[in-house]
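testing teh design pipeline on a random one, pls ignore if ur not involved
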């Protein structure tokens, strides 16, 4: 708990008063006995609910019993019932404001917990007027003052009367009297994997599936992943086939807590495997999160080479199967304090995390940071109140559509300790809405599955958004953040690459895509449509977005130095046939000129325009016409 009121309890037990209005020595024996019993329940058993009941009995006997009102306010604060806490403190203040003065600090904290930051600032300023305060009290009050000032400033800059924060407890199927936390989701948000602490000791993984909007009764993950040791802080890959997590004090581990992974098999989840060096060290590593393409692993580590207590790091998975030395995310994100709980969204551009050092409401707050057009991280943004509170916030995960967030909390309606909740995310802190494409890659001739490289590139910048390897059966899933146009390529040595295009900058569809991809072996007469070669209407100048695709052709020629190709241009049937023939020829030549510029020798290249003479679809529809307007690559020699 962030707010500790033990110093109040000690004060109440001592009962010293300099007030003329309220004298604790005049409290009757019966009320005083109930009060002492209540204090004992708090100090010995932390039973705040029963203590409040006892204090109510004492107050019923003596309504002016100010110490009872003050202790009741403190107990309600421990239960996070800040509204009742504020009411109790204000009852006490009304009895004797002078006696109340030294309680302005805890009163301010409860006001802030209730969202009354203006009044909280007034209360803490009143507290700081006391010239007899010791350094510890001054420091605590100054910290709270900074938090309240931040909250007021944030509210003034982010006025949003339409947003309603309504966290919803996920219910009995998932939450129990035990603690449930660290939610993680598959791409379709229909599988929820989380950590449950059993009997207050052993951490295991549980899973629930959503059918017709309802979560099933959570059950332990099948297979060999749950053990008698502590497994926790997990993240499931978006395709649901890999789980990364933290294992502490495992046999053969590098340090106290290491990162592990498990793969989903027909028999359940595999036995955990240690990531090993360079990811795991003699120090503490925890809270891993995979990027949507599984290419990057984000995690928290307490490394002396970092910038603070705990920092967020990232490691890249290399084509040879090894992991690069982790890189600190740098001073834009990490601070001298503690940053933790990284979650990279399906858009691969938006990162959520917690920090107890960046300006906020107190303790650990949730932040969001986004990549800019150059791939660098920008400036973190606080998610604001009431998502962030004066309590410690933890891991936040967000669905692919960017609308719904899941996190764990110990709110008043908790079924035990920590429960998992969902809520609608405020629009300004949402990630990019993200669709996805999935399917299978196979040999066009033999129909056998082909493990291959799948790439998604931003057509405007040429930046790789995602790059992943299919599984051994050629299956893949790649995410498509809405708002950009993409080149989609599938590559495998000895085959022509596959080319596709997803135009999501305007009027994006709401459905996901399924594309099974037949790759063609490189042989004479094998051909592909280059779907990312673009020209303006009736023009033959290559648009800049075409360079991404043509660079793939250049790489194909480099990787296969003996092949020769024909670039052919095609049009729809709109306009005069001779004009179409000329236009298609010039467009094919424009592509050839780019390849020559990039160093491909002229003797390996041919071009020809066919106009509208070789349609592949019906020219009676706009869709058919668009398919006929194309640039093709055909192998002429191998």
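output:
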């Amino acid at each position: 708990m962030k707010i500790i009121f033990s110093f109040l309890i000690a004060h109440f037990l001592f009962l010293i008063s300099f007030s003329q209005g309220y004298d604790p020595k005049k409290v009757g024996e019966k009320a005083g006995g109930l009060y002492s019993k209540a204090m004992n329940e708090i100090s010995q058993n932390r039973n705040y609910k029963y203590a409040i009941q006892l204090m109510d009995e004492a107050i019923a006997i003596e309504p002016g019993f100010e110490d009872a009102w003050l202790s009741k306010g403190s107990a309600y604060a421990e239960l996070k019932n800040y509204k009742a806490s504020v009411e109790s403190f204000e009852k006490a203040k009304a009895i004797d404001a002078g006696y109340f003065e030294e309680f302005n600090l805890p009163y301010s904290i409860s006001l802030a917990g209730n969202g009354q930051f203006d009044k909280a600032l007034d209360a803490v300023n009143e507290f700081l007027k006391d010239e007899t305060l010791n350094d510890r009290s001054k420091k605590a009050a100054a910290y709270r003052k900074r938090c309240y000032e931040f909250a007021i400033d944030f509210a003034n800059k982010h006025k949003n009367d339409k947003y309603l924060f309504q966290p919803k407890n996920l219910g009995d199927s998932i939450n129990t009297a035990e603690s449930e936390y660290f939610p993680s989701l598959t791409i379709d948000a229909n599988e929820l994997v989380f950590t449950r602490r059993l009997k207050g000791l052993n951490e295991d993984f549980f899973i629930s599936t959503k059918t017709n909007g309802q979560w099933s009764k959570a059950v332990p993950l099948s297979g060999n992943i749950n053990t008698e040791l502590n497994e926790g802080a997990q993240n499931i890959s978006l395709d649901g086939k890999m789980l990364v997590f933290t294992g502490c004090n495992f046999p053969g581990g590098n340090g106290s807590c290491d990162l592990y992974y498990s793969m989903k098999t027909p028999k359940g989840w595999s036995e955990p495997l240690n990531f090993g060096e360079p990811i795991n060290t003699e120090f503490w590593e925890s809270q891993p999160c995979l990027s949507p393409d599984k290419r990057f692993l984000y995690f928290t580590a307490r490394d002396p080479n970092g910038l603070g207590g705990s920092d967020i790091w990232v490691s890249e998975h290399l084509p040879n199967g090894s992991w690069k030395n982790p890189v600190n995310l740098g001073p834009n994100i990490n601070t001298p304090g503690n940053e933790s709980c990284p979650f990279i969204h399906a858009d691969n551009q938006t990162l959520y995390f917690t920090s107890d050092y960046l300006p906020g409401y107190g303790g650990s707050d949730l932040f969001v940071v986004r990549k800019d057009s150059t791939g660098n991280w920008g400036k973190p943004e606080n998610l604001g109140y009431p998502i962030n509170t004066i309590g410690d916030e933890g891991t936040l995960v967000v669905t692919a559509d960017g609308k719904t967030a899941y996190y764990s909390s110990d709110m008043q309606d908790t079924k035990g300790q920590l429960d998992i909740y969902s809520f609608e995310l405020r629009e300004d802190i949402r990630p990019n809405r993200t669709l996805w494409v999935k399917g299978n890659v196979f040999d066009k001739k033999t129909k056998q599955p082909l493990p291959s490289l799948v790439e998604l590139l931003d057509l405007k910048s040429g930046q790789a958004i995602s790059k992943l390897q299919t599984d051994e059966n050629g299956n893949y899933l790649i995410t498509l953040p809405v708002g950009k146009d993409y080149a989609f390529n599938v590559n495998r040595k000895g085959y022509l690459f596959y080319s596709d295009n997803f135009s999501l900058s305007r009027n994006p569809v709401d459905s996901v895509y399924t594309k099974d991809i037949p790759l063609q072996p490189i042989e004479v007469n094998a051909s592909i449509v280059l779907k990312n070669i673009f020209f303006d209407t009736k023009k033959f100048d290559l648009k800049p977005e075409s360079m991404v695709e043509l660079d793939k052709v250049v790489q194909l020629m480099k990787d296969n130095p003996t092949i020769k190709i024909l670039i052919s241009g095609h049009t729809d049937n709109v306009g005069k046939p001779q004009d179409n023939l000329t236009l298609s020829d010039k467009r094919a030549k424009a592509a050839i000129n780019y390849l020559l510029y990039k160093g491909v020798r002229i003797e390996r290249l041919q071009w020809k325009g066919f106009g509208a003479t070789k349609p592949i679809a019906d020219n009676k529809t706009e869709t058919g016409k668009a398919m006929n307007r194309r640039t093709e690559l055909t192998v002429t020699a191998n």
